[in-house]
Amino acid sequence: MDIAVVTGPASLVGGEAVRVFATRFDLVVGLGDRPRRQQPPNFRSHPVDLRDLAAVTGVLRDYGSDVRLVVHTAAHPGGDRGEELPSFETAALGTVNLLEAVRQHAPDAVFALESTVEVYGDVPNALPLVETPTRWELDPGHPWHEHGVDESMGLDRADRAFPAVPVLAADLTAQDHARRLGMNVGVFRAGTVVGAEGRLGLLPTLVRDAVRGVPFTIRGHGGKQVRDVLDAADLVEMFWHFYRNPRPGAVYHAGGGRDRAGSVLEIIAEYEHLTGREVRFDYDPEPGYADVRWWLTDTGRFRRDYPLWRPTRGLTDLLAAAHRYWSGVPKVVLDRGIGAGVE
């Protein structure tokens, strides 16, 4: 039997991984919160706390060497949300526990860690940026201008939003298990990952507020901060390619690149053009802690190693999908803010 283990099956990326891998493995095992939506018949939920080493080890022991792939969604959504200690422990200690359980009971399994580009903190703000009427842009003479930031960006001397700190610990721990202990671990530092049913982050918040008819809040940088977006399904396909031909210890950036990027102001304009709906917004001049003005993700390293992978959906398609989803959510649920969608 071939088994895939997915942590955070109730999250955006975890839920997409369950959906995709249920068609490619005999069994998909979920660790963590039980998903609200109906799951495939070959999905089995184990609502264990990743901080509980005995519980995590027990699950991996039960399935043993039949586990072929582990997808660990350690990354937190963006934003300085002031997480308390349990969330720190879930990302940092939970990753250590999961790695050790896999090493002991499924040592040949491939382990894909979803990290985040937020591990770099505010380092990108030191890049030579140019302000235009609608966006911040990297100096055209800089080597990262066309394709975005690659994996050589440094991690030191950075301010970070609190949720990024335990993910950095998880990121480095996973690399260490590959380099020192020979595990088939790959680290995927994801940028802005989106999906139609996502409820956290720029796109879903913008669309949900627009559908509700309430003002969307732009935080700092004149609304000119730039992000690229990647469909959660495309990120899961990166995990799949890595599983088919793992490169232990590899660190990859995961994002949409320049063709799937825009500033907050540009994304608002695109949504208005797409829907004919005016977006009301408020402006808070104070940006989020360690928020960066410009980020484009260079996926060149991954595409060189796995040339058959390409992002499939563009920014307009992703906005349209989010609009269709949130337009179909009952108003009473919309007004609760977090009563629908997935993280």
TrEMBL record:
Residues 5-133, 168-250 form the NAD-dependent epimerase/dehydratase domain. Signal peptide: none annotated. InterPro entries: Epimerase_deHydtase, NAD(P)-bd_dom_sf. PANTHER family: DTDP-D-GLUCOSE 4,6-DEHYDRATASE-RELATED. Belongs to the NAD(P)-dependent epimerase/dehydratase family. This is NAD-dependent epimerase. It comes from Saccharothrix coeruleofusca.
